[in-house]
Design goal:
The protein is mainly α and about 230 residues long. About 70% of the residues lie in helices and about 0% in strands. It is built from 8 helices and no strands. Helix 5 packs antiparallel against helix 8.
Length: about 230
Amino acid sequence: MQSCPNCSKVFDGNYCTNCGQKYLITPYSFRNVLLWLTDVFDFNRGFFITLYHLVVKPSYVVSTYLRGNTKVYVSPFKYFLLVLTILILVGSLSSGSLGLEPSEEYQTYFAFFLFVIFFWLVNLLFFRNYGFNPVESLLTVIYESTEFILLIPLCLIISRIFFETGLVTEKAKNLLLVFTYGTLILVYHLWFTINIFKGNNFIVFLKALLTFFLAFTLLGFIAAQLGQ
């Protein structure tokens, strides 16, 4: 039997019943570190299923988490920070995950944080009578915004393929990137919003369009100010 390294009590399960210390396999090895990383990033239980279900059935993910079932899906805050961290790490190992200079890229991430806040406020304004309190609305917006982030690498790959095959010029590649990303996040936003907010689909559709364009108008304004 393994004893707790903190209080010497014998472990009963994965945690010490006396002090709460988590059971860790020692001595450390590459396998142990891999298991630890898997646990930290929730790859062993919820990350990929959260990503997939937010695409195919976002209302189920949101309703499941908001009613207190936190075992199936990664929490919104953890999901957001995890995806953003992965994007930054990938960018640091290459020439920048967004194709920008490092200083410009971090400004973009900062602008995205501000966008999430404004996106939340706009959603509160247009969807205040749909049964979500302010905190629940924030969690919903974070889930959706994280999917926006995940679309960035896909759009970069698409524009890169078109450029490398000679179908577009360098300038056209950037325009293609903006167009592809804008189109995908608009389509996803409409799909996400109509799934989440039950009611007259046409009214929800119009409100979704308004929230989208208002939020991204502010994002463009913020990005312009940061670029000065």
